[in-house]
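<instruction>
Derive structure tokens from the sequence

<record> Sequence and structure tokens follow
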Amino acid sequence: MTDEPLTDLKAAALIADEARRAPDKPGVYRMYGEDGTCLYVGKARSLKKRIVQYAQGRFHTQRIGLMVSLTRSMELVVTASETEALLLESNFIKKLKPRFNVVLRDDKSFAELMIRRDHRAPQVRKHRGAHTIPGDYFGPFASTWAVNNTLNTLQKAFLLRSCSDSVYETRTRPCMLHQIKRCSAPCTGLISLEDYGELVTEAEQFLRGKSRAVIGRLSKDMQAASDDMDFEQAARIRDRIRALSAIAMENSVSAEGLAEADVFALHSDGGQACVQVFFYRAGQNWGGRAYFPRVDKSDTDPEIL
């Protein structure tokens, strides 16, 4: 390649040469500028067809046309599916931060709840990032408040530990969370691991949307304790039911049959855009968040989404 700036015609010829060699398979493509910096990362169902579009100047906005004119080289990665291409594209964008990709101003990952399964007494905690720890993951929750509120409710209702493994192993007597009825204290043997495992199973079922079944079983246990004149135990179960009922009501979904969905809405005007997202999991609304991506006036709504 020459050191002189590429014209649109020369850039198109360069990309056309890539198109002739590109496979008709899904994948991710990267466009690089003169100084070797990544200009753009994109995905396609067919790499060949997408690159041909660039070479022919089809669907170019002013911004995309400028990007093509600055392109000096391309790199292609073939993937097994469009889904894999989507994930790879996201990873490349976060790592390379290409100039011509729409950039979110807030790219922090969403919080989730996790029940760890790599310990004899599973721990419930808040989690962000990759699923590298063995366990059950629930989410995403769209706000820190939502995940913290649900975590507090789980502690009240199922008495699951939230302490670290090192703290668990060194406890000789119950901690403050047990005193305020937020943990069943498996660390000191106040509950057997078998009984603790039943609490973990109930928490998992609740998070998977089986709240009515869990509350129904607790109601029967409360009635049985009351019949046996064990009113203290009945009161403890009553408090657990109240905690679960409160969060089940807060997270109830009005749309019938909507169990698992990510719902997106977009409004754009005059070079500004707002994207609103809502998460529905296990028949519950787990919150929403607004994003304000940096966009160009020439960006279309599908490009922004």
